[in-house]
Amino acid sequence: MAALGDIQVTVLKGVGHALAGTLAKLGIHSLQDLLFHLPHRYEDRTRIIPMGSLRVGDVGVVEGEVVKNDVVMGRRRSMQVTLRDDSGFLVLRFFHFNAAQKGQLAIGTRVRCYGEVRAGRAGYELYHPEYEANPEPMAAAGSATLTPVYPLTEGIQQPRVRSLCRQALSYLQRYPIRELLPPEMLADYQLPDISAAVALVHAPPASANVPQLLAGKHPAQQRLVMEELLAHQLSLLKVRQQIQQRQALALLPQGALVAQFLDNLPFSLTAAQKHVLADIRQDLSQPLPMLRLVQGDVGSGKTVVAALAALQAISGGGQVALMAPTEILAEQHYNSFRQWLEPLGIRTAWLSGKVKGRARTEALDQVASGDAVIAIGTHALFQQDVAFHRLALVIVDEQQRFGVHQRLALREKGVSGTLAPHQLIMTATPIPRTLAMSAYADLDTSVIDELPPGRKPIETIAVPDGRREDIIDRVRKACEQGRQAYWVCTLIEESEALQCQAAEVTAQDLQERLPGLRIGLVHGRLKAAEKAEVMTAFKTGELDLLVATTVIEVGVDVPNASLIIIENPERLGLAQLHQLRGRVGRGHEASFCVLMYHPPLSQNGKARLQVLRDSQDGFVIAEKDLEIRGPGEVLGTRQTGLMQFRLAEFERDKGWIEVVRELAPAVLADSGRTEGLIRRWLGERIQYGDV
Ligand code: ADP
Ligand code: MG
């Protein structure tokens, strides 16, 4: 028997070559693909809402009699039509209209319309609602159903998708969708079977619970949500499984090198660092590739943990690659590692995108021959022409800045034959637990949950930019006392050029007002050598004030800096602000962070800055960020690839995440189900699954 997945959409009426092409852009080829193109919301046209009960933001159907129809002037000319029902009034406003419409909506006409309520000039208004004059009576109460709304792409309209899905549904009887969830799972959670769930979601019967459907909580929807979350979980677990089918070098720690390293450190490790290192040491000594995520809040001391992991790999005879997301951070790591490891006779190579010509050839040779046992750089490390001699450990710092695809792709490097490198992934973005469970299902996790001793809390204040003069004065005083400060210029991310320009102007302006201070400037458009020079000067105390763009957001470590001014913090996410603020508070001095906002702040803007003032705990801040802005933003925009669900919504559905995590291993053991689920839900997006 043919399956729904084998029947092409071209069997449907009205689907020719052109429309099939458009559907293909949505990843829809077969009838099954079409039926998994699920409505992401519903319109409730099942009942007429009394005007007197409307609130701003309500979307729905109202019906009444036209009692006034005027063309009014104002900022824009518009037609203003007042409707009345038994409970109140409502205004329809049209900025574009013609004489025929004015005639249609003449006083005394009955009108039914559908739209969103806004607070307008004349009270509650609908702008350009869909409307019908002298409508047929509504279907008897109880017989109408919700109208599904589908995601669209260019070249296809809502009614078209609705009609195609309705046609496809008629095939369901003869060609049911394959049930991929084990029967006991359905029974345990009282979930409807797949064909029933899909049918219901596309065409809810009149008897279905409307509020539940509108809230996405109907059992049919929840069944699909859970299946989708399970499919995502499985895709990551499968990646993990594939990697762990390979072997890795078992790297046994060599006490002598480590002892020497620790002796040279000016501090001793925190208990949390030791704890995490024990996890890593254990993993590395196995002949199975490590897949470990280390989460540690800003300033918790991840770099030294990375260095110790590297040391174990090197003493076990392997090479190490350390990748950082920015040139500035990569260079800083290069300097730290050289300082730490050269005394132990360990050679480090530097490979960033900006290293060119002979320097690059030399570095490549050293890495290829194994003379350099550590290679540090940006993603340039993983370009084609970089060959390692015996890569045993890959470390990725500030992982949240890389895409999921990059993370998964880099696993290819260093794979030779059946050997794969160990992987240590570090992130400072504290990710709420449920989110981590779904986004990093392929990784084991360790948390550095403690800051080094002696850190003073960073005092954070929010100040309107009208008080710029006072702030400048504060910077002057701090620097005169031998402190160092950052001044961060933010602009909307899309224009790096503008961001750099703003930083240049600010630096000039500050230099004019603060002639006594030594001011440096760093932004993304400087040459690598220039950036490095400025950063070194700041680090060694030759500069008092560093004006910067958000290029310093991650990783930069200058413990003497104790004041940071962030302009327009309202433009940034909480996690990003927390990262930026983490540039200070790294030494023993009391530190300050000034959030210099541009008034007026929105309610939401106020709430967000307040979160930052109240807390310095990255996890607390991330939870709030998750509440306010959703998972894509928390993971970093480039991380969203794996979190783009069709139906699941992180906040609403997070209850499933733990369930799915528990159930996934059993399903994974059944490769038929696993393949089917992944293909069904992730389809063409899952090429990296072949890693
Ligand atoms: P992260 O990368 O986690 O934000 P870093 O590795 O840059 O943090 O470390 C922050 C600062 O704390 C650095 O100056 C580092 O030398 C210092 N540091 C790290 N571990 C300790 C420790 N156990 N005790 C004291 N200082 C430490
Ligand atoms: Mg760091």
Automatic annotation (TrEMBL):
Catalysis: reaction(s): ATP + H2O = ADP + phosphate + H(+); Couples ATP hydrolysis with the unwinding of duplex DNA by translocating in the 3'-5' direction
Keywords from the named record: ATP-binding, DNA damage, DNA recombination, DNA repair, DNA-binding, Helicase, Hydrolase, Isomerase, Nucleotide-binding
Span of domain Helicase ATP-binding: 283-448
CDD domains given in the database record: DEXHc_RecG, RecG_wedge_OBF
SMART domains: DEXDc, HELICc
Coiled coil spans: none
A Gene Ontology BP annotation from the UniProt entry: DNA repair
Gene3D superfamilies on file: Nucleic acid-binding proteins, P-loop containing nucleotide triphosphate hydrolases
Molecular function in Gene Ontology: 3'-5' DNA helicase activity; ATP binding; ATP hydrolysis activity; DNA binding
Superkingdom field: Bacteria
Residue ranges annotated for the Helicase C-terminal domain, each copy included: 481-627
Catalytic activity, EC: 5.6.2.4
Keyword Transit peptide found: no
Function of the protein: Plays a critical role in recombination and DNA repair. Helps process Holliday junction intermediates to mature products by catalyzing branch migration. Has replication fork regression activity, unwinds stalled or blocked replication forks to make a HJ that can be resolved. Has a DNA unwinding activity characteristic of a DNA helicase with 3'-5' polarity.
Family: Belongs to the helicase family. RecG subfamily.
Protein's name according to its UniProt entry: ATP-dependent DNA helicase RecG
Species whose genome carries this gene: Marinobacter mobilis
